[in-house]
């Protein structure tokens, strides 16, 4: 059976309870020999300290790589430079550079307006000390006007120095493959890793789609709604559906799979085990 490469996203643990949950989750997922763990950065830089603490805790293990998210709203250039130097001093040489979400009520983004400006700053201050991952949107960022502009801005990030990209989650494999084809025609040649969101709760996944512009097919929405409050059936069907989506992606040539775990392991493990035959 073909080896499948995985990676997993966590959000920073703040409370003792969250730290226990994350510890158990990462220990279980570590057994899948992932390429890397990533750690998110709250809207407006609201979790900067918690993100760094979580990253350093994960880094206590030799593997896998740990990739901190860093957004344009992470602070002033000086404070971002201090944070990056802290990561470098702890042998963390990968960054996921994002524009980041603007918190409700906040009128504008931070010092850097776009991810390519943040990447340019990192390159100017640290040369090639960091490998840089970026985000991209197969179904178009909510603020983009066309797919052409979406690819244009993605290409700017690549030309500034991005080494690989992770997509927003989606439920249609054709959306991913069409996007990759158009990126390649535009001269974008870095790996584009599909982002995978397990389905465990209809209201949550439907809300996430609204936030990020991911399209949930109407038939899938109605199917999930038909289970009502039967969470076990939703999770079972969601696992089957996402497993098939992942199989399509791997069979079609996707380089790996990146799971948005929400700091829980069961759904992700079930899908990974289905894919690997374990």
Query: Roughly how much helix do the residues carry, as a percent range?
Result: 40-55%
> How would you characterize the largest beta sheet?
8 strands, parallel, barrel
Order of helices and strands: EHEHEHEHEHEHEHHHEH
- Name the shape in a single word: globular
Count of alpha/pi helices: 10
Unreliable spans: none
Strand content: 15-25%
Radius of gyration: 18 Å
In total, how many beta strands? 8
SSE-based structural type: alpha/beta
Largest sheet, spatial ordering of strands: 1-2-3-4-5-6-7-8
What do the pLDDT scores average to?
91
Cα(first) to Cα(last) distance is 11 Å
Structure description:
By secondary structure, this protein is of the alpha/beta class. The chain is built from ten helices and eight strands. The chain has helices at 16-30, 48-58, 77-89, 115-126, 147-160, 173-185, 202-212, 218-225, 231-251, 266-276, and strands at 6-10, 36-39, 65-71, 94-98, 131-136, 164-169, 192-196, 257-260. It has an eight-stranded parallel beta barrel, surrounded by four helices. α4 packs parallel to α5 (147-160) and α9 (231-251) crosses α10 (266-276). The model has no long low-confidence stretch (mean pLDDT 91).
């Amino acid at each position: 059976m073909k080896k499948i490469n995985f990676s997993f996203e966590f959000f920073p643990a703040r409370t003792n309870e969250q730290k226990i949950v994350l510890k158990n989750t990462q220990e279980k997922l570590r057994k899948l020999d992932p390429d890397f763990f990533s750690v998110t950065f709250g809207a407006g830089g609201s979790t900067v300290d918690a993100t760094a603490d979580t990253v350093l805790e994960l880094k206590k293990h030799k593997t896998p790589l740990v990739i901190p998210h860093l957004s344009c709203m992470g602070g002033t250039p000086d404070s971002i430079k201090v944070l990056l130097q802290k990561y470098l001093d702890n042998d963390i040489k990968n960054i996921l550079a994002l524009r980041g979400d603007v918190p409700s009520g906040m009128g504008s983004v931070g010092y850097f307006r776009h991810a390519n400006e943040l990447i340019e700053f990192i390159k100017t201050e640290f040369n090639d000390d960091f490998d840089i991952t970026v985000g991209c949107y197969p179904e178009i960022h909510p603020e983009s006007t066309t797919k052409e502009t979406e690819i244009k801005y993605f290409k700017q990030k690549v030309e500034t120095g991005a080494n690989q990209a992770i997509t927003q989650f989606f439920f249609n494999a054709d959306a991913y493959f069409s996007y990759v084809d158009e990126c390649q025609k535009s001269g974008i040649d870095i790996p584009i890793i599909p982002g995978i969101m397990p389905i465990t709760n209809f209201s949550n996944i439907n809300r996430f789609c609204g936030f990020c512009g991911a399209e949930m097919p109407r038939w899938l929405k109605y199917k999930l709604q038909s289970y009502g409050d039967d969470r076990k059936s939703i999770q079972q069907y969601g696992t089957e559906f996402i497993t098939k989506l992942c199989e399509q992606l791997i069979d079609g040539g996707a380089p790996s799979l990146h799971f948005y775990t929400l700091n829980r392991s069961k759904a992700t493990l079930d899908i990974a085990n289905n894919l690997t035959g374990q």
